[in-house]
Specification:
Strand content: under 5%
CATH topology: Ribonucleotide Reductase, subunit A
Pfam families: FA_desaturase_2
Keywords: Fatty acid biosynthesis, Fatty acid metabolism, Iron, Lipid biosynthesis, Lipid metabolism, Metal-binding, Oxidoreductase, Transit peptide
Number of domains: 1
Family: Belongs to the fatty acid desaturase type 2 family.
Mean pLDDT: 92
Shape: globular
Cofactor: Fe(2+); Fe cation
Structural class: mainly alpha
Number of strands: 0
Order of helices and strands: HHHHHHHHHHH
CATH architecture: Orthogonal Bundle
CATH class: Mainly Alpha
Distance between the termini: 77 Å
Oligomer: single chain
Radius of gyration: 23 Å
CATH superfamily: Ribonucleotide Reductase, subunit A
Binding site for Fe cation 1: 115, 153, 156, 239
Low-confidence stretches: 1-17
Largest sheet: none
Helix content: 55-70%
């Protein structure tokens, strides 16, 4: 019993001002970039070349988007909160989750955090000269693609976030803080406002997420959680479709501007 703190100690400890409490009173200070940033590196003639393929993109890129009514939604894979069997469904999900090792969840959390940083990726696309959404609701092909791509991608983080919350296997508050730090810090992939560089980056990014989600799908199946395998595999399928679109853009740019 000697190791337990007395009630008086508890009371005294709440009166002390800790370093953490002092830090919480400080105003938010965003991180500052330290490397030299290059901006608007693409010459005007190349911007015109890029703009010249907008008609081609309308016919060949927008087809890789799905109508909202034909898209899956996170709720399709999760316990139904309005059903009488909701609590039992959650219990079954948590029982399956218990059979999966911690190291798997480390990867799944990483995948989810990556997906939840979607605002950063949309911001990056809207830095690209000739492709940015100038108004927030621009009717250009590139702006429509960015908004619809973002809307499709948004389901990925939503689904993984809700699954992990229901699983009871992870510290959600720490994950949520990490996501806030990540989005608040921003990201400079050094694409220099250049759509050539920007779309090469997104092609690799989509390939990487396709591979990662595909791997988590296979491992979930190996661990016996078919529903989780379906979740990860469905997200991987979206990433592959998006990769196809971005690769087509890059191939077209190489074709007209070798």
């Amino acid at each position: 019993m000697a190791g337990l703190r007395s009630p008086s100690f508890y009371m005294a400890s709440t009166l002390r001002t800790s370093a953490k409490e002092i830090d919480l009173k400080k105003p938010f200070t965003p991180p500052r970039e330290v490397h030299v940033q290059v901006t608007h590196s693409m010459p005007p003639q190349k911007i015109e070349i890029f703009k010249s393929i907008e008609g081609w993109a309308e016919e060949n890129i927008l087809i890789h988007l799905k109508p909202v009514e034909k898209c899956w939604q996170p709720q399709d894979f999760l316990p139904d909160p309005v059903s009488d069997g909701f609590e039992e469904q959650v219990k079954e999900l948590r029982e399956r989750a218990k059979e999966i090792p911690d190291e798997y969840y480390v990867v799944l959390v990483g995948d989810m955090i990556t997906e939840e940083a979607l605002p950063t990726y949309q911001t990056m696309l809207n830095t690209l000269d000739g492709a940015r959404d100038e108004t927030g609701a621009s009717p250009t092909t590139w702006a429509m693609w960015t908004r619809a791509w973002t809307a499709e991608e948004n389901r990925h983080g939503d689904l993984l976030n809700k699954y992990l919350y229901l699983s009871g296997r992870v510290d959600m508050r720490q994950i949520e803080k990490t996501i806030q730090y990540l989005i608040g810090s921003g990201m400079d992939p050094r694409t220099e406002n250049n759509p050539y560089l920007g779309f090469i980056y997104t092609s690799f990014q989509e390939r990487a997420t396709f591979v990662s989600h595909g791997n988590t799908a296979r491992h979930a199946k190996d661990y016996g959680d078919i529903k989780l395998a379906q979740i990860c595999g469905t997200i991987a399928s979206d990433e592959k479709r998006h990769e196809t679109a971005y690769c087509k853009i890059v191939e077209k740019l190489f074709e007209i501007d070798p």
